[in-house]
């Protein structure tokens, strides 16, 4: 599952309730606004996260994370240098299956599509099987928004 958290610390109880009710194996989070000094722990999950650099200390924003159940075979992949998007990445290595790269992605609304696609293309080079989930800030008039 993926969830635009818009503040993991302020919505922790809501996320924990969802986990208790639905028992997801992997959770992709966006807009976590964590700082390196803040930890977020969920029982039976390992948490990988990428905090936005140069946070405003009074109003932090951005950031991505992946929560994955401890028993699932996986490893963290350090995020390569990205210029227009934010991502956290794991490699899921299930027995007798090809590895799957799972990427929690946040594309800020100010990102230019002429450039952030370069970051996405670079991430797709991490492996033959990639799953992206996240907040892409995709807008469309068909969804009741003012612009495409």
TrEMBL record:
<protein>
    <recommendedName>
        <fullName>Endonuclease/exonuclease/phosphatase domain-containing protein</fullName>
    </recommendedName>
</protein>
<dbReference type="InterPro" id="IPR005135">
    <property type="entry name" value="Endo/exonuclease/phosphatase"/>
</dbReference>
<dbReference type="Pfam" id="PF03372">
    <property type="entry name" value="Exo_endo_phos"/>
</dbReference>
<feature type="domain" description="Endonuclease/exonuclease/phosphatase">
    <location>
        <begin position="1"/>
        <end position="145"/>
    </location>
</feature>
<dbReference type="GO" id="GO:0003824">
    <property type="term" value="F:catalytic activity"/>
</dbReference>
<dbReference type="InterPro" id="IPR036691">
    <property type="entry name" value="Endo/exonu/phosph_ase_sf"/>
</dbReference>
